[in-house]
Amino acid sequence: MTKLLQSIVDGLGVGSTYALLALGISVIFGVMHLVNFAHGELITIGAYASYFFFLHGGSWWWMPLIIIGSAVLGSVVMELVAFRWVRHASPFTLLLTSFALERLSHALWQIFVSPKQRAFPKPSWVFNQFKIADISFEVMDVVTIAVTGVTLALTAVMFKRTLFGISVRGAAEDFDAARLMGVRANRVISGAFAYAGFLAGIAACLIVMRSPAAEPSMGADWLLKAVIAAVIGGLGSFTGAVVGGLVLGLLETLTRVYLPDIAEGWDKFSTAVVFILIAAFFVIRPEGVFKVTHAERV
Amino acid sequence: MLEVDRITTRYGAITALHDASLSVSAGELVAVVGPNGAGKTTLLNTVAGLLRPATGRIRFEGNDVTGAEPARLVRSGLALVPEHRRLFKDLTVDENLRLAGCTVKSPERRRRLEEASELFPVLRAKWTTSAGYLSGGEAQQLAIARALMSNPRLLLLDEPTLGLAPTMVDVVFELLARLREQGRTMLVVEQNATRALRLADRGYLLRSGRVVTTGTGADLAADTGLFDSFIGTEAAPQR
Question: Which fold has domain B2-235?
């Protein structure tokens, strides 16, 4: 029972990070019908920003601001310099553009910084543990779940109550109809990218607090998981992205812990097992957990 | 108020509008009628900025607005109630209206929301219902209420009675008559040709993307030969 509870907390910890990234991917997909494969680069940008910040004497108190700020800026610039020019192109062109951005980002970090990992100190409390009724929890897991919970609650309020949130939901449903209501295409798309950047920035904070290092390809693994989470939830569904992220995190942790211990290193297969389970799920329900019928292209 | 001067609009290789011209003066209700595929919706979508004409000019209140973004046109006083309503089905009635009030500041938006709830009592009762759960008549009223949120000086309506039950068709026509009495300028594309023309000050008959005739609403409505030749009985069911 203790093992199960600890695994669930671990799973929710990883899953919340997937959820934040998947939600950003779904928001962008909603307004542009683009699966942004360069979204993971925002984590890399955040990590390098914190590395340089540390190099110049920065402290962890200001780090979240630096990471989130750089991720928001990175996301907005990405839209401005790349996606805006191909907005009306085919989905394939949009996809290729996102791949190109992802590759370009890797190359730039490799050339201008280093292909090697650049580490910096982590906050002292990250791996501290505390016990409740004989179950030990990592402080970072609780921080991750709490930060994600608050962020998602604020996101829900933003989407429900603010004019920007309603505009994004409306634009995700029918972009032309939103334009006919006076919604400015550039503003809502830039805003969506900024918000996706904000979510990725929070995810990047949680990631670099655990593993305080920057390297050119660090966003790629997270991106793959986040895209899978968004697809599990039903691409374009905001609630689905969160559910997909949490489910993926839980599946990963539980399979790692509970896979039969038949050979040394068997737990390395946990990711493969998770992907097989997801593939089986898509055979039964190809549209994901939440079916999205709209999502018109711009 | 609106001058459409010889516009041609194409979808790829297909030309949907050929050199179409029309005008709407302040306070007028102008109806555009014609058979299916005549280019009526293309005409409204081009005026509203969803489509860019290949040739020709569009002027609104003296300004050239050819190819302008829909969001800019809404802000300059022109709104479209699109064909099939295109409501945001996942958004509530209130959210649909708030989104449509994005062109004005918060206090003014609140005032207009109150106005909408007074003008459309049926919507007041469904304020927090998702638009996807509204009946056809309620949905059409929401579509019109939504377009009115920007307080347009020119309201374009594309097939406002399409797919509605006869009683609801009456409700929509009564609403159009009321808006007209209030002095609202309107350009209406309507399948109920005779009824629309009877309400209209002037009408245009469109066929195969071309304006084939124009006249006062009453004259066009009374011209039975015109209907038989150009529109057909399907488009004039309520003579």
Answer: Rossmann fold (3.40.50)
